[in-house]
Design goal:
heterodimer, A: alpha+beta, OB fold (Dihydrolipoamide Acetyltransferase, E2P), 5 helices, 35% strand, B: Gyrase A, domain 2, six-stranded mixed sheet, globular
């Protein structure tokens, strides 16, 4: 089954967040990727977009499904993964690496610490 | 839907093969095993095996069976030779579509009708009533299994499973009895993927054994089990209509691009008068195939709008990435004036008008 890195934080919406200095990189978990199947389109809001926590910041589509991306925490997008525009399948092959979605400057880094840790996320997956 | 979902005789094999099971037309069916794209490519390049046991099979027998069938469908069944099948629509008196069918002429007094699972109750009742006082009617759906073997290696898989030379040499839309994998079957050279292949009828109690025999025989040839997801992308690339998407009781076969199965000069049939009137008046809307030129994927139910945006002028009936054509493709109804190849419009995707262009269909055509 999915290996969820222990250095990441997670959300109930199956997104991951990685603290990088005063920024947070976000993506979707392998659980989400497996549920979606072959990913064919990733659309992430542009740098400069201000986000409330849980706000939709993009869309991700597989051959069969359309799904929304939700901000794990409040902040501002400082970078989106432009490489996914031409190679969305990267999310299937490397969800926790090259398949990242966006880098967010959190309004409050304390929000990061409030996210689920890997053990809590796996407990969540166990209840699904 | 609170109705309890049914399982086909092959269900346990789908679970064992790692199939992801979803509800479909009242059945629990596999939507994918290895993944939609992998299965799609297997069917285009080698072969795929589909459980279609959920589909309906109806039989008409007797002296007037052929005439009864012919009166209830738009294509010309009377002229069809024994041993051949045809694709057709079944219309109501208004000329709109109750279902699309494959109808098999098994004998001069023996007709088999295959209908969509989602329409079985309606179509079974329709033909039961049609047969009254004219011929015998039986709904064979419970006792009949159906497996589709599709792809360029389908013939090789059939050979490996023990099919006769006659079955291997069947022309398109012909069918014959045979023994495959040790089971009595009727093999038809038909399908729903745009590839060569067979749809194989068997007894329900033999369906699991036949499935396993084909999987075993086909494995060295690249055969993969394929689910509803790949079935949908394959038929879309081949521009084959899906009931509930392109066609339903609000659409007629002429606007749906199915004029080739409407034979207005054959003997009278239900819907003929209405279709003559519709043809004479001219079509107001037409089904077209389109490619997205902007970045986006059209989906069933999305509005079609003028380029640049505005009030809806049409509707997307199906849309998806086309794994073989490598483009985001779709089918939809547009005003007749916008139906020529090269016409441009937009699809409204999450509030944005994304450009699309009408293209020649089918999107994919196999090399023969």
């Amino acid at each position: 089954m999915a290996q969820n890195p222990t250095d990441l934080r997670y959300t109930n919406d199956h997104e991951w967040a990685r603290k990088e200095g005063d920024l947070v990189r976000v993506g979707i978990t392998t659980h989400a990727v497996e549920a979606l199947g072959d990913i064919t389109l990733v659309d992430v809001a542009a740098a400069g977009t201000k986000l409330a926590a849980h706000a939709r910041f993009g869309d991700i589509e597989s051959v069969k499904a359309v799904s929304e991306l939700f901000a794990p925490l409040a902040g501002e997008i400082v970078e989106r993964n432009a490489a996914l525009e031409s190679a969305p399948e990267t999310v299937n092959s490397d969800a926790y690496g090259a398949g990242w979605m966006a880098v967010i400057r959190p309004a409050n880094m304390a929000d990061f610490d409030a996210l689920l840790d890997a053990a809590a996320y796996e407990t969540l997956l166990g209840t699904l | 839907m609170t109705q309890e979902l049914r399982r086909t005789a092959i269900f346990e094999a789908h679970v064992a093969l790692g199939g992801r099971i979803v509800p479909f037309a009242g059945w629990e069916m596999p939507v994918q095993y290895a993944g939609v794209v992998a299965e799609h490519k297997a069917v285009r390049e080698a072969a795929g095996l589909f459980d279609v046991c959920h589909m309906g099979e109806l039989e008409l027998r007797g002296q007037h069976a052929v005439v009864v069938a012919d009166y209830h469908i738009s294509n010309d069944f009377g002229a069809l030779p024994v041993g051949k099948a045809l694709y057709t629509t079944c219309c109501n008196a208004e000329g709109t579509i109750l279902d699309d069918l494959i109808v098999y002429k098994r004998g001069l007094e023996d007709v088999l009708i295959v209908c969509n699972a989602s329409n079985l109750a309606k179509i079974s009742a329709h033909f039961k009533q049609a047969a009254e006082n004219h011929c015998e009617f039986r709904d064979l759906s419970e006792e009949t299994g159906l497996i589709a073997l599709q792809g360029p290696k389908a013939v090789d898989v059939m050979r490996a499973a023990g099919a006769s030379e006659a079955t291997l040499a069947l022309p398109s839309f012909s069918f014959a009895k045979d023994t495959v994998g040790g089971f009595a079957v009727t093999a038809a050279r038909t399908g729903y993927t745009g590839e060569d292949g067979y749809e194989i009828f068997c007894r329900t109690e033999d369906a699991l054994g036949l499935w396993n025999a084909l999987i075993t025989a086909g494995k060295p040839l690249g055969l993969q089990p394929a689910g509803l997801g790949a079935r949908d992308t394959l038929r879309l690339e081949a521009r084959l209509s899906l009931y509930g998407n392109e066609i339903d009781e609000t659409t007629n076969p002429l606007e749906a691009g199915l004029g080739w199965v409407v034979k207005l000069d054959k003997r009278d049939f239900i819907g003929r008068d209405a279709l003559l009137r519709i043809k004479e008046a001219g079509l107001t809307r037409k089904m077209v195939g389109f490619e997205m030129t902007g970045r986006g994927i059209a989906r069933h139910g999305y509005p079609i709008v003028p380029e640049g945006g505005g009030a809806p002028i049409g509707l997307v009936t199906s849309g998806s990435p086309g794994p073989t054509v490598g483009k985001n493709i779709g089918l939809g109804y547009v005003p007749a004036a916008l139906s020529a190849i090269g016409s441009t419009f937009a699809v409204e995707i999450r509030g944005q008008a994304i450009s699309a262009v009408v293209v020649k269909t089918p999107f994919y055509k196999r090399a023969r």
